[in-house]
Design a protein that fits this description.
There is one protein chain. This protein has 280 residues and is of the alpha+beta class. It contains five helices and eight strands. A six-stranded antiparallel sheet has the order 1-4-5-6-7-8. The radius of gyration is 46 Å and the shape is elongated.
Length: 280
């Protein structure tokens, strides 16, 4: 008797066994080393893709854009550069005024320390209110403490100064210091032109305008013979007292654009600018 049911189960068992052996022995497929071509994501819009193409197609500015930019830069430069240069020149003057004031203050104190107060230096002029002899004697006391590049003495014909007329702040002609032999002239190492004269009787007993007990008056031009040679612009002065040096106050407070400008050295030292008031 042949059991067909047994054959049915045997056939199914053989089929299952064959499938299992295929799964076990089969190797997984090898991965490719070639990178797939880039495909933009579906989320990227058409407008974004076109914009990217435009940017890559025109990376530089056009000629019109460049010219407009240069024109704007030129206008801004024309408006700002003059004020910047004026401020720089002004600060250069302020710096030199303060430097000379400090230089002479130190020199005077050293000279006093070595030789006594100025009223003991016997600076009285031989004739008149002042003369070349007393100016030269003052130079003997003060020059050792200054860095002098050129010493022109009291000669009226010299390389330090010429016969140029110096002007007051308001623009009027004042005097030609260079041709006057009563002034002693020197040029400092920084190019500043300095000259002085003594003031009146011995013992520093004379006055100079509103200042009392003035021994000497010292002028300086920060840029030598160069223009404008004007009080309060490039030329300033100090008064020398018995034991100190002070800004010139011979005419009181005359630091106005319509005045002489002698006291403007005090304005420059205190405020650090040349912005003088229009008028009293």
């Amino acid at each position: 008797f042949f059991d067909f049911k047994f054959l049915f189960y045997l056939d199914n068992a053989i089929k299952r066994s064959a499938k299992r052996s295929i799964f076990i022995t089969a190797k997984p497929p090898r991965k490719s080393c070639v990178k797939p071509a880039y495909k933009p994501r579906a989320s990227r819009s058409l407008a974004f893709t076109n914009l990217a193409r435009i940017r890559w197609a025109s990376p530089a500015f056009t000629l019109a854009e460049t010219l407009i930019t240069l024109a704007i830069i030129g206008v801004v430069a024309a408006m700002t550069i003059p004020s910047v240069l004026n401020h720089y020149r002004e600060q250069e003057i302020v710096s030199k005024v303060k430097k000379i004031y400090s230089t002479f203050s130190s020199a005077i104190q050293l000279a006093i320390y070595e030789n006594g107060t100025i009223d003991t230096w016997d600076l009285a002029p031989k004739s008149g209110n002042y003369d070349r002899t007393s100016a030269a004697k003052f130079a003997e006391y003060i020059k050792p403490y200054l860095k002098v590049m050129t010493d022109c003495g009291t000669d009226s014909d010299n390389e330090c100064m010429d016969d140029t007329l110096y002007k007051l702040l308001k623009g009027n002609n004042h005097v030609a210091y260079g041709s006057n032999s009563n002034y002693y002239k020197i040029i400092l190492a920084d190019g500043s032109l300095v000259w002085w004269r003594t003031n009146g009787s011995s013992g520093c007993a004379s006055s100079d305008g509103e200042a009392e007990n003035v021994c000497a008056i010292i002028w300086f031009d920060i840029n030598g013979k160069k223009d404008p040679n004007q009080i309060g612009r490039d030329t300033f002065s100090f008064q020398l007292l018995n034991n100190s040096i002070i800004p010139n106050s011979a005419n009181g407070n005359d630091c106005y654009l319509n005045a002489g400008g002698w006291s403007c050295v005090a304005h420059v030292i205190e405020y650090g600018n040349l912005n003088y008031p229009e008028k009293k």
